[in-house]
UniProtKB/TrEMBL annotation:
Organism: Sinosporangium siamense
Ranges for domain D-alanyl-D-alanine carboxypeptidase-like core: 252-360
Superkingdom of source: Bacteria
Keyword Cell cycle: no
Keyword Repeat: no
Higher taxonomy: Bacteria, Bacillati, Actinomycetota, Actinomycetes, Streptosporangiales
Protein's name according to its UniProt entry: D-alanyl-D-alanine carboxypeptidase-like core domain-containing protein
Coiled coil stretches, renumbered: 51-85
Keywords: Coiled coil
Example of a GO biological process term: proteolysis
Length: 366
């Protein structure tokens, strides 16, 4: 019979993997845009929108990487479950085979014994009507034993066929699992490289803007927006320095995502007013929070509860500290574009026009 030309599931999976691996040589558009943004920054001055775009690309790449990693873990979980089901079926077949073996051997011996007895195969008397009752009972017993033996043979054949089928399924499952996992792993590796490349471009852009970050051949961890939430693993006011990104204003730091948003806002502010935003305070460690709390009672949060301690708040000067000034009004009108806002309580209780906070949800919604 001519061999079928329809590809097996294993072949189809292999084709899919080859296609996926071939696609990995394509440079993702996000990485390309990131490189262009950095080149443009060096050539024609920095546009704060480009830095915001880089940050969003980095966050998007990190999210895609996280989703792909979860998909791989889910796939591995399904593989483990499939293996357990398959192993359960094989164990059930082993039990059935053992039971059949216990029945098959004595039944075969009984049938063989009866056939070997003198006259056991003499059907002449039975067919001519001269058979005795004993002969008829003997023939009935033989027929019944033969039928049982045939049932055992048929059941054995079914069990063997089922085992062969499961063995084939197991082989296909293992092959499919290996190929699928290889495909997902390759995708994760590509996404990781893409994320690293975008963050590296972002770091290079920050360096061009005068941000003093530690370059170790990779993107500086402290200014990596995809690692910003890692700072939340520390108590308020006790965030290590290498988890905080420096601002253009010397001596001040913020959480990475807040810092990058502030730097973008600072560039836009500088284009409008000819000078960068004046900052009196940004991240405050616990000791600084305690000092401010005792020096300015009623104008500072309880130590350990301040947004300054999370690296998500700044106190500003240079005119912004005066409610109604051009600088203050500019901040009110524009700051939310970069996730910064003046909290409601700071308008009255207590009145702090200089205090501004960062909320990543504001930029996500824009």
């Amino acid at each position: 019979m001519e061999e079928s030309k329809v590809p097996s599931p294993r072949s189809a999976a292999l084709i899919a993997v080859v296609t996926a691996v071939a696609s990995l040589f394509y440079v993702p558009s996000g990485s390309a845009r990131a490189e262009v943004a950095v080149e443009e920054a060096g050539a024609s001055g920095w546009d704060p929108k480009k830095l915001t775009e880089l940050r969003r690309q980095a966050e998007k790449a990190a999210k895609e990487l996280e989703e792909a990693t979860k998909a791989l873990e889910q796939r591995r979980s399904k593989i483990r479950n499939s293996q357990k089901v398959l192993e359960g079926k094989l164990r059930a077949l082993d039990v059935a085979e053992d039971a059949l073996a216990k029945v098959r051997q004595p039944l075969s011996e009984v049938v063989a014994f009866i056939y070997q007895q003198p006259g056991a195969n003499d059907f002449g008397a039975f067919l001519s009507g001269d058979s005795t009752a004993d002969t008829m009972r003997g023939m009935g017993l033989v027929t019944h034993l033969v039928e049982q033996r045939q049932q055992v043979i048929d059941e054995s054949s079914r069990v063997y066929a089922e085992r062969e089928k499961l063995a084939g399924e197991a082989q296909e499952l293992r092959a499919d699992n290996l190929l699928t996992e290889a495909q997902l792993a390759a995708e994760i590796d590509t996404l990781r490289k893409r994320s690293d490349k975008i963050v590296k471009s972002l770091t290079q852009a920050l360096v061009k803007m005068g941000i003093k970050v530690d370059k170790l051949g990779k993107a500086a961890f402290s200014c990596d927006p995809t690692k910003a939430v890692a700072a939340n693993g520390f108590p308020n006011g006790l965030i290590p320095g290498n988890y905080l990104c420096p601002l253009q204003q010397p001596g001040h730091t913020l959480r990475a995502d807040a810092a990058i948003a502030f730097i973008s806002m600072n560039e836009a502010y500088k284009k409008n007013f000819g000078q960068q935003i004046c900052v009196t305070d940004a991240y405050r460690n616990l000791a600084e929070q305690q000092s401010v709390y005792y020096r300015r009672p009623g104008f500072a949060a309880v130590p350990g509860r301040s947004n300054h301690g999370w690296g998500l708040a700044v106190d500003l000067c240079g005119g912004i500290q005066n409610s109604g000034s051009p600088q203050f009004r500019w901040m009110e009108a524009n700051s939310k574009r970069w996730g910064w806002f003046h909290p409601d309580w700071a308008y009255s209780n207590p009145f702090e026009p200089w205090h501004w906070e960062y909320d990543p949800k504001l930029t996500a919604a824009r």
